[in-house]
TrEMBL record, chains A, B:
Chain segments annotated as coiled-coil in the UniProt record: none
Catalytic activity: L-aspartate 4-semialdehyde + phosphate + NADP(+) = 4-phospho-L-aspartate + NADPH + H(+)
Positions of the Semialdehyde dehydrogenase NAD-binding domain: 8-123
Residues that hold substrate according to the record: 159, 245
Biological process annotations from GO: 'de novo' L-methionine biosynthetic process; diaminopimelate biosynthetic process; isoleucine biosynthetic process; lysine biosynthetic process via diaminopimelate; threonine biosynthetic process
InterPro entries: Asp-semialdehyde_DH_CS (IPR000319), Asp_semialdehyde_DH (IPR012080), Asp_semialdehyde_DH_beta (IPR005986), NAD(P)-bd_dom_sf (IPR036291), Semialdehyde_DH_NAD-bd (IPR000534), Semialdhyde_DH_dimer_dom (IPR012280)
Protein family: Belongs to the aspartate-semialdehyde dehydrogenase family.
Documented EC number(s): 1.2.1.11
Domain of life: Bacteria
Protein name: Aspartate-semialdehyde dehydrogenase
SUPFAM superfamilies given in the database record: Glyceraldehyde-3-phosphate dehydrogenase-like, C-terminal domain, NAD(P)-binding Rossmann-fold domains
Residue sites binding phosphate per the record: 103
SUBUNIT field: Homodimer.
Amino acid sequence: MNNSKQYNVAVVGVTGAVGQRIIEMLEQIDFPVKQLIPLASKRSVGKTVDFKGESIQIKEALAEQFDDVDIAFFSAGGSVSKQLAPEAVKRGAVVIDNTSAYRMDDEVPLVVPEVNEQDILNHKGIIANPNCSTIQMVAALEPIRQKYGMKRIIVSTYQSVSGSGNQAMEELTHQSQAMLNNEEVFAEVLPVKSEKKHFPIAFNALPQIDVFDENHFTLEEMKMINETKKIMHDYELQVSATCVRLPFYYSHAESVYVEIEDDHISIDQFQGALKEAPGVVLQDDIHNQVYPTPLTAEGKTDVFVGRVRKDLDVSNGFHLWIVSDNLLKGAAWNSVQIAQSYIKLAK
Amino acid sequence: MNNSKQYNVAVVGVTGAVGQRIIEMLEQIDFPVKQLIPLASKRSVGKTVDFKGESIQIKEALAEQFDDVDIAFFSAGGSVSKQLAPEAVKRGAVVIDNTSAYRMDDEVPLVVPEVNEQDILNHKGIIANPNCSTIQMVAALEPIRQKYGMKRIIVSTYQSVSGSGNQAMEELTHQSQAMLNNEEVFAEVLPVKSEKKHFPIAFNALPQIDVFDENHFTLEEMKMINETKKIMHDYELQVSATCVRLPFYYSHAESVYVEIEDDHISIDQFQGALKEAPGVVLQDDIHNQVYPTPLTAEGKTDVFVGRVRKDLDVSNGFHLWIVSDNLLKGAAWNSVQIAQSYIKLAK
């Protein structure tokens, strides 16, 4: 990294769950920030964010705020990104977009630095951060794919409410308290705020994340399917997903079945590839009940893998359990990593 | 059913979560009970159970209590079944065992009445009730298998704490309250009471149900694999399972991938087979957000199926979401159904 250069960094959607964590990550790794420009909607103007001991005023996210910005993180929803990301790019900023607005755009690289960092070189101003559930899965599976090839992925997810933002987290708290007190439970946010019906998430499981596609999959499931192929540059790879929202606050977990090319691989070899993988921590010791859980992964930037098993019938089939903090590696940390890679590659 | 005949019915483990519900089910369907004999461990002697407006004293589960028993339900753990079920059989009772003690015994039929009711005819005194997570899966999949053949099942479960009994339910309540109050959280029951380590289940997910086998699968996972083959009488069927405990009280949910023999089946045909299936209710309307959840299945005896999708790559692959109350169809209701089938077939 060019140690001398410093950057003007804008964070759009700074009051949201992801925006807050982008600020924390920038501070934690001492990212070379010359000036931090926290941006949000009009109603947050007047509030402040704390960054490196300074209290910085939040400004309204308007095109002219990007005039002197070098790097702009966007996590204020797809419509804001669609409207303002091109304005930021026009003014010379590189945009790292954490929404789904540009992910499947052929002109936009979709990046998990451990997997396809070099794709950043093709950017035309916007670099997209993948969906949270996709990031942790490809980070864990790419080292396997590189070493042993990969034909097929079938994933069932166990996703926390923070993936739906701060309101969903508050809803889980209110509903949990109400149910424990035998009071009436109200649902207004989950499974999808804009949908007609809402269901309780407290002490429940909702097999709907995002709205439904005509093919009966949800858009969350289609994101995992399409983004995985794009990030891995492998459109022959068979991917299928079932996405489920669950009553915990942070981290997504995934039960993953993969079929690799090589059909003579042992559990030890499979685990070995994971042990060497950047950003991946193997937590897999059945004799000592060692495996990752949402609570143990919370607040950490790594992707944790456990429960590695060889399928009992299919010689090239493996099962594994992948857990990571969806707001960190699944969002804020991966975005900041993209910024680091961008700086490194721009040297 | 022989309407005139009435039966002396013992329930062993009557104070447990399943035992309580066996009593409720017997009452609810007006099972032909001449005398109810509620049995439990010594420390419950003196307590009573309510049955059809009567308050009946609980007696200690000892061999001599089975002297006049016709049907004995066992749900007091494997060791009690191993010790006392043969005593009950010796005294002329037929045992319907809800533990894992005899399930894989070649001499013992393992029965889900909608799937393999006729197996009851081979009993030698003991009929086994399968594991909760197995029952709801085979009830939903057998009609598909009958109609379209079946090659392969890959399941990831979302299992409630009541599968671990009343103590696990209390633990979820205490931990949830503690976490909401920012108090210290204690774990003493889950994932497995007898294991060395215990982890919080509140606002978490534990990828361990029962202890580990040397093949890295848990015994819960192996139950689903082995029991499914035995119930379906199909040892060529490929089955794999990942079992996860989650913070809700009742119902298990399952994300299931199946490969059928026939590769020209539409979603409509697949749903059609489920609509006709006994004990199965299709809740699958994506345009109106209709799908089963643990809370909506709670207290109901049916198996609910939704989220039916055709795999996007594999023409004979389907995904579905199966939910049922683990204490009812997964335990008490299936046991009472076995008793009904036994009476019907004994005519």
